[in-house]
Structures are given as C-alpha cells and as structure tokens.
Amino acid sequence: MVRILLRFSEKLVEQPITAQIILEHKVPINIITAHVNSKGGEVLAEIPDAALEKMVKAFRQKGVKITLPKLIEVDSEKCFSCGACVALCPVDAITFDEDFSVNFNKEKCLGSTCSACVDACPARAVKSVKQNNSELTGNMH
Ligand code: SF4
Ligand code: SF4
Q1: pLDDT tens digits, one per residue of 26-65
Q2: pTM score, two decimals?
Q3: Is the CB of 84 under 6 A from ligand 2?
Q4: Which of these, 17, 38, 69, 78, could form a disulfide with 111 (CB 3.0-4.6 Å)?
C-alpha cells in the first residue's frame, strides 16, 4: 500500500469524487485521516501499489492535488529522550528503543496531517520532511 495525500479545493469538496473513483475503478481505498470543511479538504489515503498510477491519474483528472505526505525525521543528536513525542503520537509511530533512543515507524506515521511530535519536541529534534514525489511524477499533467 502507498500513502498519498489528496487535497480537495473548496469547489471539489462538495462532490463525491472519492466514491465515484472507487466505484468506477473498483479499487479499495483506505482512508486514514480526513480533515474536511466547506473551504476544502485534506485526506490521507492508502492505495494498493498496483493501482497507484491509475488512481493518481483518476484523481488528478478530477482536479484533486496529490502528493506523498511529509514524514518526520528525528535528530538523535538533539533528542534528550524526554518522551513528549512518544506520549503524543496517536498511532504509536514513535516509540523508545531499549536504550531510550527514539524509533520512528514510517508505515504508521500520519505525516503532515498530524505533526503532533514536531510541535511537542522541546529540543526541536523532530522535523517534517518532504518525500520525493517522483513516484507520482509520471502521472502529472
Ligand atoms: S507526525 Fe503524528 S503520527 Fe507521525 S510520528 Fe509524529 S505524532 Fe506520530
Ligand atoms: S520530544 Fe524531542 S527530545 Fe523528547 S523524546 Fe521526542 S525527539 Fe526526543
């Protein structure tokens, strides 16, 4: 599965685009988080690897912006193992190893739709980093 970030404009957010695309292409999409209001929406979704290209194209044809979500990076030099990030992570994507170094699980992280650990770190040891979107570039138009 590949996690992608779908951005819906104010105009698009009123339309059942995701449901239409799922029905049309018969590809199951796993919605991880959704922040939607009348001004627009941001949805973190998981797409099966084999259907990625087809689904990216389908969403872009409808005007939905797609990127890979930003991930987080922990600077072990700055981290002093206070545990604030570990305590706040809603999906246990940050844990302590036995030696109290911070362990980050990319597969679980909600990326830029969350960023709780970035804001919580008193040492500014956690930062949000862009992923290389080249995996999606072939589908841009
Ligand atoms: S961004 Fe959110 S989900 Fe990801 S590691 Fe930080 S707190 Fe956890
Ligand atoms: S909040 Fe910052 S200093 Fe504290 S454990 Fe997490 S990365 Fe380390």
Answers
A1: 999 999 999 999 899 999 999 999 999 999 999 999 999 9
A2: 0.83
A3: yes
A4: 69
DSSP string, 71-124: EEEE-TTT-----HHHHH-TTS-EEE-TTS-EEE-TTT--GGGT-HHHHH-TT-
Structure confidence at residue 137 (pLDDT) = 65
**Residue extents of the structural domains in the chain:** 2-67, 71-129
Question: How remote is the CA of residue 20 from the centroid of ligand 1, in Å?
Answer: 30
Same fold, 2-67 and 71-129: yes
Judge if the beta carbon of residue 22 lies within 6 A of ligand 2.
no
**Closest protein CA for atom 2 of ligand 2:** 121
CATH number of 71-129: 3.30.70.20
Interval 54-102: pLDDT, tens: 999 999 999 999 999 998 999 999 999 999 999 999 999 999 999 999 9
Q: Which fold has domain 2-67?
A: Alpha-Beta Plaits (3.30.70)
Give the residue among 70, 74, 71, 98 at the shortest CA–CA distance from 84.
74
| Contacting residues for 86 by C-beta, under 8 A, at least 6 apart | 94, 95, 96, 102
